[in-house]
Design brief:
Helix content: 10-25%
Distance between the termini: 67 Å
Shape: globular
CATH topology: Double-stranded beta-helix
Radius of gyration: 22 Å
Largest sheet: 8 strands, mixed
Number of strands: 16
CATH class: Alpha Beta
CATH architecture: 4-Layer Sandwich
Strand order of the largest sheet: 1-2-3-4-14-6-16-5
Number of helices: 8
CATH superfamily: Clavaminate synthase-like
Number of domains: 1
Strand content: 15-25%
């Protein structure tokens, strides 16, 4: 598609799309989110969202109800268990960062909520008040990241699986009996989950690297040293300048990114200036890998057989005794 092209040919929609990044990012105009959308427009937006991974809709002076209505065109809205939200509408996340209320640790490259069995398909963030300087959001195409890898590396990581956990949010719980009780409650709800290291996008069919330093713990079945070295290599893919898009916010902008194919990080350089944003998150599906999952026997060599191979004959440990 050209740098500036119309979607009207395929959809009879007045939408216009202009790419703002080489590998990801497009600005869409010709739409008013204060009004209901027809099916053709929604379908065009779905296709653009999948293709460009990040879509920017400027000049959208919308209310919270408009944002939630727009989000529901793309699926069910979810409630983030560890974020600041509106009491009347828990699906609506409110970030009102200013002096006395600094931003959370969202300055780490990540894909939203991969600690879920079905991570979000997309996230919408709408700006209300933005700082005079700073407060940008960085995006990175993980499909371009996968394409940047050598053929041998692509083959090696396809079929690997990684374990994800809500580890950064555990620091929110107080070190008290009540805090530990609440933490155990959420650890029971959100147990560590396994996702493919290489994910296939359900719309485009493209492959993307699907691990991130915020939520990914280790490669399943792999020795710790090899797992850490491999994850560090994959985490550093977001440092490739060419596959990034840096978004500069203005008031009344809505950005909708694809969690299935892009990572993001908020730049925390604006505090104590005020930055007020509203967000909704759209439910996704279980990630599908690029190939059959690798067997543990293919990933690790043991100096001796693991103890789990001898459950009937090995010596018992204290915690196993009744």
């Amino acid at each position: 598609m050209s740098k500036s092209a119309s979607l009207a040919t395929a959809t009879d929609s007045p939408l216009r799309i202009k790419r703002v990044g080489v590998f990801l990012g497009a600005e869409i105009t010709g739409i008013d989110l204060t009004k209901p959308l027809d099916a053709a427009t929604v379908e065009a937006l779905k296709q653009a969202h999948a293709q460009y991974e990040v879509i920017v809709l400027p000049n959208q002076k919308i209310g919270s109800d408009d944002l939630m209505r727009f989000g529901r065109y793309f699926g069910e809205l979810t409630v983030h268990p560890f974020s600041t939200n509106a009491a009347a509408n828990p699906e609506l996340i409110v970030y009102d960062n200013k002096e006395g209320n600094p931003p959370a640790a969202t300055d780490v490259w990540h894909t939203d909520e991969t600690f879920r069995e079905e991570p979000p398909m997309g996230t919408m963030l709408c700006s209300k008040i933005v700082p005079e300087l700073g407060g940008d959001t960085m995006f990175c195409s993980m499909t371009a990241a996968y394409d940047s890898l050598s053929d041998r590396m692509q083959h090696f990581i396809s079929g690997l699986e990684a374990v994800h956990d809500f580890k950064p949010f555990k620091a929110l719980f107080a070190e008290s009996e009540e805090g530990w009780k609440k933490l155990r409650h959420f650890e029971e709800i959100y147990r560590p989950v396994v996702h493919p290291v290489v994910r296939v996008h359900p719309v485009t069919g493209k492959k993307a690297v699907f691990v991130n330093p915020q939520f990914t713990l280790f490669i399943k079945g792999m020795e710790e040293r090899e797992s850490r070295a491999l994850l560090d290599t994959l985490f550093r893919l977001t440092a490739i300048n060419e596959i990034q898009y840096r978004h500069r916010w203005e008031p009344d902008m809505l950005v909708f990114w694809d969690n299935r194919s892009a990572q993001h990080a908020a730049v925390h350089d604006y505090y104590p200036q005020r930055r007020l944003m509203e967000r909704v998150t759209v439910k996704g599906d279980r990630p599908v890998g690029a190939s059959e999952a690798a067997k543990t026997s293919e990933l690790r060599k043991f100096k001796m057989p693991p103890l789990s191979s001898f459950d009937k004959s090995r010596a018992q440990r204290q915690f196993e005794r009744k």
